[in-house]
Design goal:
The chain has one domain. By secondary structure, the protein is an all-alpha fold. The protein has helices at about 5-50, 55-105, 110-145. Helix 1 (about 5-50) runs antiparallel to helix 2 (about 55-105) and helix 2 (about 55-105) runs antiparallel to helix 3.
Length: about 140
């Protein structure tokens, strides 16, 4: 039994999915920035741990203080990465829902709205976490650990 899928609903679904796909690309760029920041934090932490073995007692207190800040920053960036990833997954679900509803003649309006709003909420929390990490990093530069 062959399934009759019209080209017009598929074309319309593709047109509807263009905006979420651009949003997905933007979230991907944010994830790239966040993972790069996390990598830099990890590299700095490894460097400080290596130096910790070679310095005296007075210098080790300063290194421990900086390591505490780095740990805090890593937690915040990790949280931002998690929220961004969930946001991207929700946007992917929106795109899939649009295609499924186009093929199956299903009114997915409420589902798409709910998923999209949820994706935006996760993205907002991710960006707020990113802002917090920037503040932590800047505070160290301006005020010291």
């Amino acid at each position: 039994m062959a399934v009759d899928i019209s080209v017009v609903p598929i074309t319309h679904a593709i047109q509807q999915a263009v905006a979420p796909v651009f949003l997905l690309a933007g979230i991907g760029a944010i994830l790239n920035v966040l993972t790069n920041r996390l990598a830099r934090i990890i590299d700095r932490s490894r460097n400080l741990h290596a130096r910790l073995e070679m310095v005296g007692e007075e210098k080790s207190a300063s290194i421990h203080s900086e390591l505490l800040v780095l740990t805090s920053r890593a937690r915040v960036v990790n949280r931002a990465i998690g929220f961004s990833t969930v946001s991207a997954l929700l946007v992917c679900t929106v795109i899939a829902t649009l295609f499924i509803s186009a093929v199956g003649n299903w009114d997915s309006g409420f589902a798409v709205v709910g998923l999209f709003v949820l994706a935006m909420m996760f993205l907002i929390v991710s960006l707020l976490s990113f802002l917090r990490e920037i503040q932590l990093a800047t505070r160290v530069i301006l005020n010291g650990p």
